[in-house]
Amino acid sequence: xxxxxxxxxxxxxxxxxxxxxxxxxxxxxxxxxxxxxxxxxxxxxxxxxxxxxxxxxxxxxxxxxxxxxxxxxxxxxxxxxxxxxxxxxxxxxxxxxxxxxxxxxxxxxxxxxxxxxxxxxxxxxxxxxxxxxxxxxxxxxxxxxxxxxxxxxxxxxxxxxxxxxxxxxxxxxxxxxxxxxxxxxxxxxxxxxxxxxxxxxxxxxxxxxxxxxxxxxxxxxxxxxxxxxxxx
Amino acid sequence: xxxxxxxxxxxxxxxxxxxxxxxxxxxxxxxxxxxxxxxxxxxxxxxxxxxxxxxxxxxxxxxxxxxxxxxxxxxxxxxxxxxxxxxxxxxxxx
Lengths: 232, 94
Description:
heterodimer; A: mainly alpha; Ferritin; B: alpha+beta; Ubiquitin-like (UB roll); flat
């Protein structure tokens, strides 16, 4: 959970100062900050449970790509605004279902983080859904770009529901809720769900991250690795 | 034709019981989008509990040239101010 929010938060931050409209720029930065805030909670808890005196920052800045357990979807590059918003939409739809499930988790600290995050992510999903609908059902060009974004990113959807031993929840059970919201939104956006359910795998197991993650981490980690004693 | 989204004026209510106050303006594709943008631009630091957005084009404003005729006549009508009444402390802010 913490690696997903960290990697996507960092990706969204890349837009800061470059978004197509001032309002979208601030909105994306807000979402990025929400995700980084959630990262501090998840990785803080993970570091504490590991019990080796590590902090959330140690986990964020001093692990290499193969130790990251994020979904392949979130490490995909921003490309254009349409791809960024489609990636956000698909992740938000999964993220909200996952957090709702985790609010009932037996571990009180996990449940508390989920309860705090679910409010933020409810808004993320509302915003990305509206944007996907507006651009999908917009001009001929915006429709074409959003359909291309959906076609590009759909192969990264399946991994979100592929179970492995480290899962905090039954991820397969999240699919109906995800499908219901995604399909209704795509219909309204006049976008067509791709036929193929081929799914890239290997992000959340760490076995086969895409080449993009290493480049992103190099940027993100360079300062604390070059100056290990640096303080804010 | 302009490529800009239409301009909306944003009003935020800081807390329950107070009025909405004008805080600024922003661009958005429609009113719902304007609410979301206002949330992201103007309520990042817990500034509000309610947002209104109004298309800027829908606002009719008084003209600066009419300032004299509109406002100056009130200058010497001090009796219109409620300063001649004693207000009990219990009333609080008015």
